[in-house]
Amino acid sequence: MQVISRKTMLFSIFSLVLIFGGCSDSEVTYTGDSGFDGDSELEDEADTPSIGGDTEQEENSDRMENEAEIEISDTETEIDSEDEKVCNPDEKWCEGTELHQCNDLGSKELLPVQCGPIGCEGESCNVETALLFDGQTGWVDFGEKFILYGLQEYTVEAWIFWFENAEDGGAVYGEGYLDWASLWVNIRADGTVSFGDFDRTTNLKRRVTTDAGAISPDAWHHIAGVRDGNTYTIFVDGRQMGETETTSIDLPTIPPRAYIGKGGDDVGFFFNGIIDEVKLSSETKYTENFTPAFRYEVDSDTEALWHFNEGSGSIVMDSGNNAHQGTIQENTTWSDDGIWRVFDCAPKWQSCEQNSVQVCNEYGRWVEYQTCEGEEICTETGNWTASCE
């Protein structure tokens, strides 16, 4: 076995230091050919490679590289931050029935405000008002015109909050003169709803009447009168409450008039309560039970549509294409208690309550849909949806 002396090992290690240290001018004293003389000293310690010095240089170099990387990282962060901006800080805008808002950093959208059927415009939800009729002198007059009178197919529908009339009668909508002929949707004192038209001069009537108590006072109801040829049908809250087959009669030519909240020109039949969302259509809209819409939209068969959301002034605007504007008369006032305001939520909205998913039913009331079990937690996931997760 070849034995390597201690002196030889030390010389080898020192040589490696010289080579990797980069110092070729250093001089070393040797004694004999056999190796390093342990008693010799370096002639010039200043020329001796400094391991610590190289380490310091490397640390300085690493520090400079790190600082450069930090500067690059900061620049990239600024760029990333700029790229992450999805909207202008505090900006608001409408999309459909949702009012969107950006946070103050512009980095994300806040949970949108659900404006519901009333929708939104610009930077706010639309107003929701209705008309309050006093049951004595208030109505809306549309002047000398017919809108539905004489048509073979049509639908009259509205949301009403009936205060109960002191006397029989209370027309939601009417056309014509009662001493001649008329078309009407009428509420009687006992909660009966009647719909039809007749010629008073010949006493020929075509009408359908519900049982008493079809609607209750001090509550919102949707009513719809539908004519399909000689068939007259009444729906209350989306349910068919009466239907009549009549014989064909020729209605006389009469002076045209149209009203809301009143039955005719000479006899009042004033409505006592709130009316909202009145729509007239030149077709048979409903042939079976349905879920009433809280807010109507214009379609190809819309003859007139009044949302009553003006909130002030004496003119009600027709949202349809026929410009059937009306003028508020006598003791008719604006009400902030429109149909949308009385509901707790919009149909199909979801939320969390006591670790269960709540869903809004078609009548605007929260009902339990799903109970979260075990370790599941009810989580509102945005856009008015929720789930057990």
If you had to describe this structure to a student in words, what would you say it looks like?
The protein is mainly beta and 389 residues long. It is 13% helix and 34% strand. Residues 1-52 and 72-82 have low confidence and may be disordered. Strands 6, 8, 13, 14, 15, 17, 18 and 21 form an eight-stranded antiparallel β-sheet that branches. It has an eight-stranded antiparallel β-sheet with strand order 12-11-10-9-16-7-20-19, with no helix packed on it. Strands 1-2-3 form a three-stranded antiparallel β-sheet, with no helix packed on it. It has two helices and 26 strands. A hairpin with a 2-residue loop joins strand 14 and strand 15 (239-245).
Summary, kept brief:
The protein contains two helices and 26 strands. The protein is mainly β and 389 residues long.
